[in-house]
């Protein structure tokens, strides 16, 4: 069964293939406004510097280095005909090379990520051919009056193909990343087809169709990580990914109790992503934690490699790829905000230091325990070797509450019923507290602006905002316990988008480091912004949204609260 996804003007299909579902196939097609020759240097850079520049633009930090090892020589070939009257073509049992073909051996080294346990390199043969160079016969008879058998002029922009195939193990080339390379990727074949489209009425300028097809075939000689999953595919739902190491703090608590099954069934990181769980909690909770472990074992989840309950920070954070920090000191009756911050600063200072010392350098950290923004800031400041972009705090629960209230309002006032999937482009700005800023200025319902559907401005600006800000307190009053099930669902949505990408054309709310923002928020805070997630832990703030004077004043108020919380945390840290 194919999984479908729309990315800009491209449609992407993917599926698992093979007898045991251990192989992958991807097919992507779309249109680009350009000439074929304009795409060629992007898909087939001719120099090593161009190759690396293009790859880094596309892949960012995932790409380490690429080498053009050498070009396949075609001795005796030029653009002139030989004396025997034949075209400049070489024919063999394997393939035919025309004079316009370009064949090279390249390497591409990829950084350790959730898919790869270590830096890994692909060594492949690249075969470029203009589509005009493919006559029915590779030979032209001397003196023939039928010119249809001769090569078409390659200057005619008729498109091209690029085929990339993994080199056999016996012919692997290490390239320039030999010291960094630990494993090699095998069994990958990929093809680009670029072809011009006919001009149509209303179409301005040339357009091309770009098609991409790739298959990944698991073999007996797969790199470390893939090989392990291949040999145990019956126990891991035929998954070929390296296990993701995940630590959940407060793992004996209610939120974790709802969250852990979502991780284990693949709802968050993918239906084929194996996981290794580290369940962290304080010493008095270890007996309860053993009970959680037993329940997880009794569920017999296919994707779980290991479950490790612990109170030790090194055991919990060693080489982890994802840290979900749910556990914190709860607010008790009579506690002031500064008292709560002081109790939690010690916890998140220690956990931040443990992340810095033991975790993967690419670890993604999500802080849930309140005060979430300032707890996240404390952990981040105590993990200086981890990129600040890798830390975030949960405001997705507030984001989903806002969408839910809008669904309820629309369904109460409109004949056409909607669901939460019909509501997007809402924003939560600032702190996860009563000063948070629910903003529906850009909200859409089924693609229509919200103000075209909900005309009650007083409800939007007053009751809606208050209901979202006070929802957590309302749940505690009714349930006598804080949100757990909904918090777990929000954690899942936050991480799923962060790792796999948010839906095209939509944005979500994440509390992230405010460094470099364009909304005038002071730098050095953990502040909730609208973001678009592009996958693999990458995201970008959605800039240029209109900010009304009312929203601007609220944004400044929540920023002031965060600034005060930061000052309290810094003052406490200097005393510890």
UniProtKB/TrEMBL annotation:
GO molecular function list: L-malate dehydrogenase (NAD+) activity
Enzyme class: oxidoreductase
Domain Lactate/malate dehydrogenase C-terminal: 395-571
EC numbers, comma separated: 1.1.1.37
InterPro entries: Lactate/malate_DH_C, Lactate/malate_DH_N, Malate_DH_type2
Short name of any one Pfam family annotated for the protein: Ldh_1_C
One BP term from GO: malate metabolic process
Record domain Lactate/malate dehydrogenase N-terminal: where: 245-391
Keyword Oxidoreductase in record: yes
UniProt entry tagged with the keyword Oxidoreductase: yes
Keywords: NAD, Oxidoreductase
Family in the record: Belongs to the LDH/MDH superfamily. MDH type 2 family.
Protein name: malate dehydrogenase
Lineage, top ranks: Eukaryota, Sar, Stramenopiles, Oomycota, Peronosporomycetes
């Amino acid at each position: 069964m194919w999984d479908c996804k729309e990315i800009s003007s491209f449609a992407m299909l993917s599926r698992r293939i093979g007898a045991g579902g251990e192989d992958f196939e991807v097919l992507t097609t779309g249109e680009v406004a350009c000439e074929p020759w304009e795409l060629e240097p992007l898909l087939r850079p001719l120099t090593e510097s161009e190759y690396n520049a293009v790859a880094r633009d596309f892949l960012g930090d995932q790409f380490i280095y690429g080498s053009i090892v050498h070009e396949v020589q075609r001795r005796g070939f030029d653009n002139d005909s030989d004396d025997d009257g034949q075209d400049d073509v070489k024919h063999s049992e394997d393939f035919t090379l025309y004079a316009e073909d370009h064949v090279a051996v390249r390497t591409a080294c990829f950084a350790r990520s959730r898919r790869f346990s270590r830096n890994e390199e692909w060594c492949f043969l690249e075969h470029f051919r203009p589509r005009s160079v493919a006559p029915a016969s590779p030979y032209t008879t001397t003196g023939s009056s039928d010119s249809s058998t001769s090569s078409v002029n390659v200057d005619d922009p008729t498109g091209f193909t690029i085929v990339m195939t993994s080199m056999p193990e016996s012919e692997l080339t290490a390239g320039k990343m030999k010291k960094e390379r630990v494993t090699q990727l095998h069994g990958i074949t990929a093809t680009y087809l670029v072809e011009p489209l006919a001009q149509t009425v209303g179409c301005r300028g040339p357009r091309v169709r770009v098609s991409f097809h790739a298959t990944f075939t698991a073999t007996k000689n797969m790199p470390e990580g893939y090989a392990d999953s291949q040999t145990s595919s019956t126990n891991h739902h035929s998954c070929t990914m390296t296990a993701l190491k995940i630590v959940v703090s407060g793992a004996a608590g209610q939120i974790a109790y709802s969250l852990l099954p979502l991780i284990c069934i693949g709802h968050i990181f993918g239906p084929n992503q194996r996981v290794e769980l580290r369940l962290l909690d304080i010493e008095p909770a270890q007996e309860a934690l053993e009970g959680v472990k037993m329940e997880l074992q009794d569920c017999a989840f296919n994707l779980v490699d290991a479950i490790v309950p612990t109170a030790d920070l090194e055991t919990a954070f060693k080489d982890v790829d994802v840290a979900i920090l749910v556990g914190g000191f709860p607010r008790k009756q009579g506690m002031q905000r500064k008292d709560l911050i002081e109790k939690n600063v010690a916890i998140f200072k220690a956990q931040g230091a443990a992340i810095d010392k033991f975790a993967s350098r690419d670890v993604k950290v999500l802080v849930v325990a309140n005060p979430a923004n300032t707890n996240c800031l404390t952990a981040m400041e105590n993990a200086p070797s981890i990129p600040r972009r890798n830390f975030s705090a949960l405001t997705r629960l507030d984001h989903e509450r806002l969408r839910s209230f809008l669904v309820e309002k629309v369904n109460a006032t409109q004949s056409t019923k909607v669901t939460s999937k019909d509501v997007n482009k809402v924003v939560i700005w600032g702190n996860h507290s009563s000063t948070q800023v629910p903003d529906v200025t850009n909200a859409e319902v089924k693609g229509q602006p919200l103000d075209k559907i909900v005309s009650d401005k007083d409800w939007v600006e007053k009751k809606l905002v208050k209901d979202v800000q006070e929802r957590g307190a309302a749940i505690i009053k009714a349930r006598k316990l804080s949100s757990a099930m909904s918090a777990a669902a929000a954690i899942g949505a936050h991480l799923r988008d962060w790792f796999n990408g948010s839906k095209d054309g939509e944005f979500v709310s994440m509390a992230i480091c405010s460094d470099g923002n364009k909304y005038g928020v002071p730098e050095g805070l953990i502040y909730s912004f609208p973001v678009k997630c592009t996958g693999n832990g990458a995201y970008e703030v959605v800039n240029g949204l209109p900010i009304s004077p009312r929203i601007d004043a609220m944004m400044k108020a929540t920023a002031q609260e965060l600034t005060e919380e930061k000052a309290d945390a810094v003052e406490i840290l200097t005393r510890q």
